[in-house]
Design a protein that fits this description.
This protein is α/β, with parallel strands linked by helices. It is built from 14 helices and 15 strands. 48% of the residues are buried. Bound molecules: nicotinamide-adenine-dinucleotide.
Length: 382
């Protein structure tokens, strides 16, 4: 670890890559050295004063790049992560880190073997309300957790998108569909209940058949996290009444993390307590207004390179970047509650469960998550 100014290389200069670059640019001990992106790179380079490079190989080989930020579409995260590790560069990779367990495992393993950090961009870990919930549960505040329920649903009309050319975010092969693209809720549920052991999923494309977006628009997933611990999660764009929440039911009380009404509510026999989801009541209020104004329901809206993230989202991105930066500069110790983000655990666990759920739907059976690593291709012997 080092106290020097750290150089960052950005891969993907769209909605998220550009905002991450702006946040890094604002840090006094960081600089954005270069950006690589087939589109949007010149504008970002002009804004943050960095170089544009034509290939990932060129970016990772630069001496002034210490950390590679991967914010390209979900299906192209593997190659830059492996190349970065090969050049001894730390990796920050947006979620979902990969669309298969084999790829996620290869990325995490390559970084571990190279002795560099691999941090998954599971930004919900940096929400105050999620963190307080994790602390409350660890302290036994709602007793033994029996059940988590989560939903991230809404309705997407085809005419919201350019007909015939949906964003890559609505193409299953590129995004992984709602399950992978919106892996946040799965990740948070596993953070709070532990990893899933056996899973089953039903669903399909029930309301958008014949449109250019080919993702499943209704997904119902049930997870067993060990004896007496279950969760049920729903995702999709076939829901005329949008919902977005994570709820926990314990032997002593409940917690509702509400992303729509925005806030966290704890109910126990001692009474009802509420606390903000984001950094302040103002950020919670901003999100409440945004969701209420959304045509599809805020949870299934997508950003694009022409948009800036809302303030509440920039707030948690700032915390995420600040955490990684301080860790890499040796200015702080790892936070035990965030350890899973930088040791590969959260990345591997979320993709393993998503892959098991995908297999359950395809093969019409309950699947043990432990089957998934066995499905990875055998190591080459040459
Ligand atoms: N954590 C979150 O809440 C959150 C929110 C939005 C996006 N994301 C993630 O961030 C990543 C980027 O999403 P986005 O919203 O910025 O998408 P976007 O479509 O706005 O931008 C994608 C960018 O990647 C570039 N690109 C395309 N192919 C590339 C390649 N092969 N190599 C390098 N760059 C390439 C595009 O030119 C574009 O600039 C995705 O993995 C997405 O899931 C995370």
């Amino acid at each position: 670890m080092t106290h020097k100014t750290l150089g960052y290389g950005i891969i993907g200069a769209g909605y998220f890559g550009a905002e991450l670059a702006r946040i890094i640019h604002a840090l006094p001990t960081a600089h954005v050295a270069a950006v690589c992106s087939p589109e949007d790179a010149p504008a970002l380079a002009a804004e943050v004063g960095c170089d544009v490079v034509g290939s990932v190989a060129e970016l990772v080989a630069r001496d002034d790049v210490d950390v590679v930020v991967i914010a390209s579409p979900n299906d192209v995260h593997l190659e830059p992560a492996l190349l970065a590790a090969r050049h001894g560069k730390h990796v920050f990779c947006e979620k979902p880190v990969a669309l298969s367990y084999a790829d996620a495992d290869a990325m995490v393993t390559a970084c571990a073997e190279a002795g560099v950090v691999f941090m998954a961009g599971h930004v919900m870990h940096f929400m105050d309300g999620v963190r307080r919930t994790a602390e409350l549960i660890a302290a036994g505040g709602i007793g033994d957790v029996l059940l988590a329920r989560a939903a991230r649903t809404g309705w997407v009309d085809e005419e919201h998108e350019s007909p015939g050319t949906p964003s890559w975010k609505r193409q299953r092969a590129r995004s992984g569909g709602h399950l992978f693209h919106h892996i946040h809720e799965l990740d948070v549920v596993q953070l709070l209940l532990g990893p899933a052991e056996r899973v089953v999923m039903a669903g399909g494309n029930v309301a958008h058949q014949g449109t250019a977006a080919d993702e499943d628009d209704l997904l119902l997933a049930t997870l067993e996290h060990g004896p007496g611990r279950f969760s049920h999660l729903e995702w999709g764009s076939a829901y005329r009444r949008p919902e977005h929440y994570v709820e926990l039911f314990g032997t002593r009380g409940t917690v509702r993390i509400d992303f729509q009404e925005v806030g966290v509510e704890v109910r126990t026999p001692d009474g009802v307590t509420r606390f903000p989801l984001h950094r302040s009541d103002a950020e919670d209020a901003e999100r409440r207004v945004e969701y209420a104004a959304s045509r599809s329901g805020g949870g299934v809206d997508y950003g694009n390179p022409a948009m800036r993230p809302p303030g509440w989202l920039i707030g948690i991105m700032e915390r995420e970047v600040a955490y990684l930066h301080a860790l890499l500069r040796g200015e702080r110790e790892p936070d035990p509650l965030l350890a899973g983000l930088t040791d590969g655990h959260a990345a591997r666990a979320s993709i393993a469960t998503a892959e098991a759920l995908t297999r359950s739907l395809a093969e019409d059976r309950k699947v043990s998550v432990s089957e998934v690593p066995d499905a990875a291709p055998p190591a080459r012997e040459d």
